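Q: Joint fold for the lines below.
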Amino acid sequence: MAPHKEKKRANLRDVARIANVSVATVSRVLNTPKVVQQDTRERVEAAITELGFHPSAAARAINSGRTRIIGALIPTLESDIFALTLDAIESRLDDFGLSLVVATTDEDADKEARKAKELLDVGVEGLILSGISHSDALHSLIERTRVPAIVTSYYDATFRYPTIGYDNHGAARLALDHLQDLGHRQVAVIHGPAAINDRIRERLRALIDPQDGVSLKYYETEFSVAGGAAVIDRVLTKQTQLDAILCLSDVQAFGALFALQRRGVNVPQDVSVMGLQDLPSAAQSYPSLSTVRLPARRMGRLAAESLAKWVEDDHKPDPTCLPCELIVRESTTRKH
Amino acid sequence: MAPHKEKKRANLRDVARIANVSVATVSRVLNTPKVVQQDTRERVEAAITELGFHPSAAARAINSGRTRIIGALIPTLESDIFALTLDAIESRLDDFGLSLVVATTDEDADKEARKAKELLDVGVEGLILSGISHSDALHSLIERTRVPAIVTSYYDATFRYPTIGYDNHGAARLALDHLQDLGHRQVAVIHGPAAINDRIRERLRALIDPQDGVSLKYYETEFSVAGGAAVIDRVLTKQTQLDAILCLSDVQAFGALFALQRRGVNVPQDVSVMGLQDLPSAAQSYPSLSTVRLPARRMGRLAAESLAKWVEDDHKPDPTCLPCELIVRESTTRKH
DNA sequence: TCGGGTGATGTAACTAGTTACAGACCAAGT
DNA sequence: ACTTGGTCTGTAACTAGTTACATCACCCGA
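A: Joint structure:
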């Protein structure tokens, strides 16, 4: 068999040769077609079509110094809140002509640093982080490369990177106040793993000094519907005088809701259940879920916008705290 | 004020100058450090640290001809099934040292083609598509650039790109057969927008010739919990002799479940409810949801693997159909 | 002392684009 | 007739890396 002719991709020079023009002219046809005479342009375009030529992204990037890629480091895509945020980020970045590379970290700081390095190797021009707990390796990487980085899902005006987040502390407070206003005093607090998650820690911090004789008992469980459901037995055993359950995330609240129904406990007559986040289905469940709305989509859009402006115009964004909103639905009611 | 010295990024030549070696040596320190003498290497490393040097991804890519980036075109991240699949894709691609750029299409073929172009401009080496409905523009783009492309969420061995999917037709059939086996004859089928979604069309196609006196009535609604809930009034009005509700997605099944509970209809005593997908919460809800499991994570992993091998070793994958599994839970029961 | 092998390093060409500058050409103005 | 200006195109340098090949020092054995 004859040795296969290496069928590598056509480049600018190939097109120039076929069209019988210089590389500069081909480049002009691609970038500023109006300055090229029509018949020349048509000849070049014919050559481009003939060869199936597509300019190399890398070669363009090397000249412009721009890749137009933004990297996002998020704990996981399995959780609605990150998926929602990311969806908003992606579509807003697209408005600025920027693409989004996603890397998941499983809430593991070392993995995050490793993936951040990969993102920078890919050439991202900006980085979106979640929360404020990161490894020194990541910090020094960001410092060395001077890549613009912003933090989402958390607000702290003094943090080393601009934070575009919501008020986790205030949201938890809002939820507890609501239960308190309804007369509830014996409250079970169900929350995800605090050790690895600064958003959860911040929410818990809001609950440390309950007023008016409110007593809080804490239950840490997996961050999922199953986690919320699994912990209910423990809650019901430990707290016979239970007024309300405050779940620091909606997914766990759904788990709690289901598990309570399964045990014949009526919500909200026997016990009120409160979530935190306002998932799309919170308005639909039966009973519908009282919760505090975290503006995930809005945050995603704003984060994307802010980073885009930083990358494009070197305009570093100010930290922003988006407001949370108490959403009262059927799952909470006044204590009888 | 003195004109600011342009503080541009340090490059290989800068490092070479500071370390008093040639560019080749610096390159060797970066890529094959063992061939460089220790003291030279240390000098270079010191220079790298001093300048905060980071090699340019674009320049590397231009030489290797590789970007190590894969692009995924998915309808939306708001839907769990895509978020789950994407999470699996991302983590599996990472095993191969590949990064993932995400672009959402909102199930719009023109938008998909536009975003595909952007992905190729970014330099993706491979493309992951969802379903088999795409614009001609996308097809010709893929043909011109000869970029490896695979399809997920759909199986069709004869399709122009390899499909790594599950059997939508078989899954729907499995669900209907289950209801039939339980003695149900009057069945409401709730499904998402068929016009724009080939997965849904394929599921519907499985239901065209029901046997044994089974009567199906169709209700198209939004692909969401709210959509599933909103259509229930219509279902209950139109079908007074209702045995079962078959929802062609779990999210809609949850909506149906909630709406039925809200109206005092007992599931499964009064009516059986069947989902399709097996979301993580399907096992937790009350009643827990009978459904057909679509192996979203497995599919994501396999798709990532297959595309990675195609990109790395030029080994085009074979179409693969992953099995769906009937999951019988509490929401379906024998007709009384 | 010479040839050969090895190891470390440098030179320069190469990747695929963009672009500053130069030059050719043609028409209009002086 | 000669300059001027504008349009179009080409040459070559430039971006930031990698790498084939050349070079040189050094050591060993003949």
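Q: Anything notable?
A: Chain A is about 45% helix and 15% strand. The longest strand of chain A covers residues 69-74.
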